[in-house]
Amino acid sequence: MIKLNVNHILYLVQAAEWTVLLSLIAFAGGSVVGLMLALLRVSKIGLMRALASGYIQIVQGTPLLIVLFLSYFGLGILGYKLDPLVAAGLSFTIYAGAFLGEIWRGCIEAVPRTQWEASDCLGLNRFQQYVYVILPQAVRLAIPPTVGFMVQIVKNTSLASVIGFVELARAGQIVNNSTFEPFAIFTVVAIIYFALCYPLSVAARALERKAHVGR
To answer: What is the pTM of this model?
Structure first.
């Protein structure tokens, strides 16, 4: 019987690199979408607020697994066959954007109303208010929950295996199929996930304490 060896562990480590890559894609794409949604959610235009709110509610109310199926199999049926990495990146961008948008909307609205009034008194337009007054303060508030959400992104990448993307969890299944040592293999997988997520969790807690002290 084939036993777990160094080559298997190296394969899992290489798969972890794909997990990190997908997480970075999700965070980068989600940040762009999330910022737009957050700004639309606090817009003075009711239609813009309603559209952004509708997007967020639909995505947050839909399991990520379904989003993955729609991106990969759904678009495939329509003739747009995507590579598993592209489909996974698109799905996680949609997913992360909805949650980050709501997190950042809350942080923008948490900036005291007096800051808006003071910037109005200075004659700043809406764009200048955001750039010079509101967003710098909102960013400080947003860092802890954003880093905390990154942990969820890393763990949720395991769902990408359903569309054939070989990330860490899928690699563990592949190695298990050849070694039949599930306890040892998934212990290693769990350790790697812990090594990826724990530093982010510690950073999120530290940044949250720092933010409260700053306030």
So the answer is: 0.88
